[in-house]
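Why do we bother with holo predictions? Because pocket geometry can differ from the apo form. Keep that in mind while you read this record for magnesium ion.
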Amino acid sequence: MTGKRYVYLFHEGNAEMKELLGGKGANLAEMTRASLPVPFGFTISTEACNDYYAEGERISGPVLEQINTALNELEKQTGKKLGDINNPLLVSVRSGSVFSMPGMMDTVLNLGLNDETVAGLAALTGNERFAYDSYRRFIQMFSDVVLGVDHYHFEDILDKKKHDAGYTHDPELAADDWKEVIAAYKALVLKHTKEPFPQDPKDQLAKSIEAVFRSWNNQRAIVYRRIHKIPDHLGTAVNIQMMVFGNMGEDSGTGVAFTRNPSTGERKLYGEYLINAQGEDVVAGIRTPQPIATLADAMPEVYAQFTAICERLENHYRDLQDIEFTVERGKLYILQTRNGKRTAQAAVKAAVDMVKEGIISREEAILRIDPEQLDQLLHRSIDPNVKLDVLARGLPASPGAATGQTVFDADEAEKLAAKGIKVLLMRPETTPEDIHGIVASEGIITSRGGMTSHAAVVARGMGKACICGCEALKIDVKNKTFEVDGKTYPEGSVLSIDGAKGTMMLGEVPLIDPVLSDEFIELLSWADEARELGVRANADNPEDASVARGFGAEGIGLCRTEHMFMDLARIPVVQEMILAETTQDRLAALDKLLPVQQKDFEGILEEMAGLPVTIRLLDPPLHEFLPSVEELLVEVTKMQQDAHADKRALYEKESLLRKVRRLYEFNPMLGHRGCRLGMIYPEIYEMQVQAIIQACTVLQERGISVQPEIMIPLVGHVNELKEMRSLVHRVASACMGKSGTQVQYTIGTMIEVPRAALTADEIAQEADFFSFGTNDLTQTTFGYSRDDAEGKFLHAYVDRKVLPENPFIVLDQDGVGKLVQMGVKLGRMTKPELKTGICGEHGGEKHSIDFCYRTGLDYVSCSPYRVPLARLAAAQATIKHTNKVPV
Ligand code: PEP
Ligand code: MG
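The structure, written out:
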């Protein structure tokens, strides 16, 4: 063959060809190679999809030619022919992108049926009812996906037919009933498209392939890619595969199974099936299926064969598999296998268990877990000791606790969530169209569908609580109500769900803090062995410090002292200090703050006994501690207009207003803050240093070891640090002189304005350590004020891909990162032993942590709940970059 290759028969591909064949195509190829019972087929590559778009949404000649050649081969393999009246080949046409996008793109099943082949199929199978049911399914699906005739028009026809005939379920329809339905379907298509339903199977095939290509760019696929950061240029492959039928009678069926429980990770086959049904019946969640274990009774031989294949597949792919299968008249076919989506709990347990079972290495286990997913394990859950009034029970489809107002529609869920209202999305079942509502909701409840229904799979992937198949619920989407036990509840009713138990309660329920599983602790201990980066926490009170230590923090990388000033009981004294007219008055107020500040430091340093604690001296502009001008202006005006107002009180308010106005800043982010405060009001920093040293003295005298690191914020010029350093030394020496106790401390600075990074060699002369404050460094490098940027334009920038990510969340390595690299390099040129860390929010983000590792920082510091994530991400960085295992 000359020219580019676009089409591959299954036996010609393999697992490595994922980019070309898509995940599904590569797997079908791999399974075919492993001699598993996979129905024959071929894959049209993702490059053909891109070619389709490049050609102006047209399948080009060479691609079409290769499809025809592959089709001829498929006909040879199966001994059937597309459109052959006596022995028709029927195929499925499925999308398959490089990364799994479940349910987001289109599929056509039963292709090849027409008015003539349907009769052939009936004769061949001796099952006329089955043949005509398949044909009507095909018309419905093809019309919806390819011709754009909405699915519900067909449902209306079917509902009317059932109603007229007095039937309640589809299986009650006989062959003749289906023939009538088909006639009505065809009339519907003619009316909508002005053309008869296409009868030429080759034409059907070409149109379906195009529709699958087009579905790469449907709205829900675009949204899904944005959420999961899948690049738009990848395109989808199309898999054409011989149909096998799970709806050929009681000896047929179809199902989905996971090799381990995707909610808990337990090593036990987990899944469900439906007898006499087709694949989409299970996934769509319209009938509630049977648990897989009961297949052992229903079809013992098939079950034994299936369990053996599951084990083989898991060992082959060395990961938890999600397997789709069909049984056609007693013969088992494997339709697909892929790495199963799972909750964080399951991911951790399965990875740790697989290490113990000798399937994977520790390093691989560490790399298997997405650090972001760990967040789910650190969520609060429902207190097991509280007796709950369970309103209804469903299947425990995705663990976690969630409370919110019920909504019945995805758009409404999105609307309310945007206003900050917590919602639970309640639907009979969900479809890929509901994806934005699922994203916006705290949890999902469905009345139909099983553990592998759309809602369940998507919720588990997103780490959201979900209960499915809650059949006691009667949901009336139109009237926005639901009914349980004869009682009706309106939209907006507050419910709580426990996705691990499948229970639903009225109102809010008490929650408890997370308990880390043994497997989780073990995995993190492996991560600690592997990683080189230190992990600290940002904490500014003893409670947070304790949580952080519990999660494995090796110290505090940032203790922001301003939060202590914000305490309601202290704010009057802080205000007194700020508003003081003379230094003497200010010192008097600071004297009152000193003992409380000292207690704060004692608490934190004691929690972190033996570990370093970086304490940052006051950073924010002083007016943040005062009432706003607007607020005061209203009060003053009211008092001025009130004839009975106390003159003295009015005078005081007016003078307060004047002082607040004096402190007003045009641009506080770039104003009088950080070390600029210490430069102008040294007494504030002096009090803080005194509090730190005295706290250390008290603790040391109690035998507690302390490692204070005093940090000066927002330094931009070495002279600022020089002056502040001598202030610290002077106060510390005085304190130690008084107490007679020596305290070991270091002095460092934050690097959070570009000039500090650019002159880091000079600044390092005065610093024992650098801590990169990448929040401010991002603001000052981009020239964005975070609040304004995030509120006004950053979303549009990210949506339009002007910026790849929000740089306040994921470190901008090319710009801000360059300054960090320069800061480290220049700093170490002056002082090779200079300690370096990061304490901006990026310190808890996996990509930024990887960058910190590559830049040679000593540690990252992040919020306490992100410490486990950071430990894992730090280990992944070492493993990836030292190539301990192939990745
Ligand atoms: C920073 O700027 O990165 C930082 C940690 O300081 P803050 O967020 O308190 O300004
Ligand atoms: Mg800062």
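The mean pLDDT is 93.
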